[in-house]
Amino acid sequence: LLAQYHQNTNHREILKKAAIIANFYLDLTNENLLAISDAREIELQLEKIETWYDNDIIYFGNVQLLLNPISVYHLSRNINSSIYDRKNEVNIKYAFNALINAACVLIKSNLVKQAQEVVKISRKLELPGYHLLESYRLEYVEGLLAYAQTKDDKKLQILFSKLAVLPSFDQLLSDFKFGFSQVVEIYEKNSR
To answer: How many CB atoms are located within 10 Å of the residue 127 CB?
Structure first.
Protein backbone atom coordinates (compact mmCIF):
# COMPACT_ATOMS: atom_id res chain seq x y z
CA LEU A 1 0.00 0.00 0.00
CA LEU A 2 2.79 2.42 0.85
CA ALA A 3 4.48 1.83 -2.50
CA GLN A 4 1.16 2.54 -4.19
CA TYR A 5 0.78 5.77 -2.19
CA HIS A 6 4.34 6.89 -3.00
CA GLN A 7 3.64 6.44 -6.72
CA ASN A 8 0.77 8.91 -6.44
CA THR A 9 0.60 10.93 -3.22
CA ASN A 10 -2.85 12.23 -4.18
CA HIS A 11 -4.31 8.88 -3.06
CA ARG A 12 -4.68 9.83 0.59
CA GLU A 13 -7.11 6.96 1.22
CA ILE A 14 -4.31 4.50 0.47
CA LEU A 15 -2.09 6.24 3.03
CA LYS A 16 -4.92 6.06 5.57
CA LYS A 17 -5.29 2.30 5.10
CA ALA A 18 -1.54 1.76 5.25
CA ALA A 19 -1.30 3.91 8.38
CA ILE A 20 -3.95 1.91 10.23
CA ILE A 21 -2.16 -1.34 9.39
CA ALA A 22 1.20 0.16 10.36
CA ASN A 23 -0.20 1.43 13.67
CA PHE A 24 -1.42 -2.05 14.66
CA TYR A 25 1.88 -3.59 13.53
CA LEU A 26 3.81 -1.04 15.58
CA ASP A 27 1.71 -1.80 18.64
CA LEU A 28 2.41 -5.53 18.37
CA THR A 29 6.06 -5.49 17.29
CA ASN A 30 7.42 -2.07 18.24
CA GLU A 31 8.56 -1.73 14.60
CA ASN A 32 7.38 1.28 12.62
CA LEU A 33 6.75 0.53 8.94
CA LEU A 34 6.11 4.18 8.03
CA ALA A 35 8.73 6.67 6.98
CA ILE A 36 8.94 9.80 9.12
CA SER A 37 7.66 11.82 6.15
CA ASP A 38 4.56 9.60 5.90
CA ALA A 39 3.84 9.97 9.60
CA ARG A 40 4.26 13.72 9.29
CA GLU A 41 1.84 13.77 6.33
CA ILE A 42 -0.74 11.98 8.50
CA GLU A 43 -0.24 14.55 11.27
CA LEU A 44 -0.65 17.41 8.80
CA GLN A 45 -3.88 15.89 7.45
CA LEU A 46 -5.27 15.55 10.97
CA GLU A 47 -4.14 19.03 12.03
CA LYS A 48 -6.11 20.54 9.13
CA ILE A 49 -9.39 19.15 10.45
CA GLU A 50 -11.50 21.91 11.95
CA THR A 51 -14.76 20.03 12.40
CA TRP A 52 -14.24 16.42 13.46
CA TYR A 53 -16.71 13.79 12.29
CA ASP A 54 -16.98 10.10 13.12
CA ASN A 55 -14.65 8.93 10.32
CA ASP A 56 -11.98 11.46 11.36
CA ILE A 57 -12.22 10.42 15.01
CA ILE A 58 -12.04 6.70 14.20
CA TYR A 59 -9.03 7.30 11.94
CA PHE A 60 -7.25 9.33 14.63
CA GLY A 61 -7.94 6.61 17.18
CA ASN A 62 -6.28 4.04 14.93
CA VAL A 63 -3.07 5.85 13.94
CA GLN A 64 -1.97 7.53 17.15
CA LEU A 65 1.14 5.42 17.76
CA LEU A 66 2.55 6.73 14.48
CA LEU A 67 2.20 10.36 15.53
CA ASN A 68 4.33 12.62 17.63
CA PRO A 69 2.90 12.32 21.18
CA ILE A 70 2.58 16.09 21.55
CA SER A 71 0.48 16.10 18.36
CA VAL A 72 -1.66 13.32 19.84
CA TYR A 73 -2.27 15.53 22.87
CA HIS A 74 -3.14 18.61 20.80
CA LEU A 75 -5.35 16.65 18.41
CA SER A 76 -7.20 15.15 21.39
CA ARG A 77 -7.94 18.62 22.65
CA ASN A 78 -9.03 19.65 19.12
CA ILE A 79 -11.50 16.75 19.01
CA ASN A 80 -12.94 17.78 22.35
CA SER A 81 -13.32 21.40 21.24
CA SER A 82 -14.85 20.38 17.92
CA ILE A 83 -17.48 18.07 19.38
CA TYR A 84 -18.30 20.06 22.50
CA ASP A 85 -21.35 21.77 21.00
CA ARG A 86 -22.04 19.04 18.44
CA LYS A 87 -22.54 16.01 20.66
CA ASN A 88 -25.69 15.03 18.81
CA GLU A 89 -23.80 15.07 15.48
CA VAL A 90 -20.99 12.67 16.40
CA ASN A 91 -20.82 9.31 18.07
CA ILE A 92 -19.51 10.16 21.53
CA LYS A 93 -18.44 6.55 22.00
CA TYR A 94 -15.97 6.94 19.10
CA ALA A 95 -14.57 10.11 20.64
CA PHE A 96 -14.31 8.48 24.07
CA ASN A 97 -12.40 5.50 22.69
CA ALA A 98 -10.08 7.69 20.61
CA LEU A 99 -9.30 9.79 23.69
CA ILE A 100 -8.64 6.68 25.81
CA ASN A 101 -6.27 5.46 23.08
CA ALA A 102 -4.59 8.86 23.14
CA ALA A 103 -4.12 8.67 26.91
CA CYS A 104 -2.42 5.29 26.49
CA VAL A 105 -0.08 6.72 23.84
CA LEU A 106 0.78 9.63 26.14
CA ILE A 107 1.44 7.30 29.07
CA LYS A 108 3.73 5.17 26.89
CA SER A 109 5.52 8.39 25.93
CA ASN A 110 5.96 9.38 29.58
CA LEU A 111 3.66 12.40 29.17
CA VAL A 112 1.66 11.65 32.29
CA LYS A 113 0.34 15.17 32.88
CA GLN A 114 -1.04 15.37 29.35
CA ALA A 115 -2.50 11.86 29.69
CA GLN A 116 -4.28 12.95 32.87
CA GLU A 117 -5.80 15.91 31.02
CA VAL A 118 -7.03 13.67 28.20
CA VAL A 119 -8.55 11.25 30.73
CA LYS A 120 -10.29 14.20 32.39
CA ILE A 121 -11.75 15.17 29.01
CA SER A 122 -12.86 11.55 28.46
CA ARG A 123 -14.65 11.45 31.80
CA LYS A 124 -16.65 14.56 30.87
CA LEU A 125 -18.06 12.99 27.72
CA GLU A 126 -21.54 11.79 28.43
CA LEU A 127 -21.88 8.35 26.91
CA PRO A 128 -25.52 7.51 26.28
CA GLY A 129 -26.63 4.48 28.27
CA TYR A 130 -24.34 2.21 30.21
CA HIS A 131 -21.15 1.05 28.53
CA LEU A 132 -19.34 -1.67 30.44
CA LEU A 133 -16.45 -1.98 27.98
CA GLU A 134 -15.76 1.76 28.09
CA SER A 135 -15.92 1.81 31.89
CA TYR A 136 -13.29 -0.96 31.97
CA ARG A 137 -11.14 0.92 29.46
CA LEU A 138 -11.32 4.05 31.62
CA GLU A 139 -10.48 2.03 34.74
CA TYR A 140 -7.54 0.50 32.85
CA VAL A 141 -6.07 3.81 31.72
CA GLU A 142 -6.50 5.24 35.23
CA GLY A 143 -4.60 2.20 36.53
CA LEU A 144 -1.84 2.85 33.99
CA LEU A 145 -1.67 6.46 35.18
CA ALA A 146 -1.39 5.33 38.79
CA TYR A 147 1.40 2.95 37.82
CA ALA A 148 3.22 5.62 35.80
CA GLN A 149 3.17 7.96 38.79
CA THR A 150 3.86 5.56 41.67
CA LYS A 151 4.99 2.23 40.14
CA ASP A 152 2.10 0.68 42.09
CA ASP A 153 0.02 -1.70 40.00
CA LYS A 154 -2.65 -2.37 42.65
CA LYS A 155 -5.48 -0.72 40.66
CA LEU A 156 -4.58 -2.76 37.60
CA GLN A 157 -4.35 -6.02 39.53
CA ILE A 158 -7.83 -5.40 40.96
CA LEU A 159 -9.17 -4.76 37.45
CA PHE A 160 -7.42 -7.88 36.12
CA SER A 161 -8.96 -9.96 38.91
CA LYS A 162 -12.40 -8.57 38.09
CA LEU A 163 -12.05 -9.36 34.41
CA ALA A 164 -10.60 -12.84 35.04
CA VAL A 165 -13.96 -14.10 36.32
CA LEU A 166 -15.83 -12.76 33.28
CA PRO A 167 -15.24 -15.19 30.39
CA SER A 168 -16.69 -12.79 27.83
CA PHE A 169 -13.81 -10.40 28.62
CA ASP A 170 -10.93 -12.87 28.12
CA GLN A 171 -9.60 -10.99 25.08
CA LEU A 172 -9.89 -7.63 26.81
CA LEU A 173 -7.98 -8.96 29.82
CA SER A 174 -5.29 -10.33 27.52
CA ASP A 175 -5.06 -6.97 25.69
CA PHE A 176 -4.86 -5.05 28.96
CA LYS A 177 -2.12 -7.31 30.32
CA PHE A 178 -0.16 -6.98 27.08
CA GLY A 179 -0.49 -3.19 27.13
CA PHE A 180 0.51 -3.07 30.78
CA SER A 181 3.60 -5.20 30.09
CA GLN A 182 4.60 -2.65 27.43
CA VAL A 183 4.19 0.21 29.91
CA VAL A 184 6.20 -1.65 32.59
CA GLU A 185 8.98 -2.25 30.08
CA ILE A 186 9.02 1.42 29.01
CA TYR A 187 9.07 2.76 32.58
CA GLU A 188 11.71 0.27 33.73
CA LYS A 189 13.89 1.27 30.78
CA ASN A 190 13.37 4.96 31.64
CA SER A 191 14.34 4.46 35.29
CA ARG A 192 17.73 2.93 34.44
So the answer is: 15
Query: From CA 93, how far away is CA 72, in angstroms rounded?
Result: 18
User: Cβ of 144: how many Cβ atoms within 10 Å?
Assistant: 28
pLDDT (0 to 100) of residue 82: 87
Residue whose C-alpha is closest to residue 33's, from 63, 69, 75: 63
* 154 vs 170: CA distance, rounded Å: 20
For residue range 93-152, list pLDDT tens digits in order.
899 999 999 999 999 999 999 999 999 999 888 776 668 889 999 999 999 999 999 999
Question: Please, what is the Cα angle at 50 between 46 and 55, to 5 degrees?
Answer: 60
Looking at residue 99, its amino acid is L
Q: How many CB atoms lie within 10 A of CB 47?
A: 13
Which residue intervals of 109-153 are DSSP H helices?
112-124, 132-150
Degrees, nearest 5: CA angle 17-175-42: 25
Torsion-angle region of 121 (φ positive above 0: left; ψ -120 to 50: alpha; else: beta): alpha
Say what the pLDDT of residue 166 is.
92
| CA nearest to 100, candidates 149, 51, 64, 49 | 64
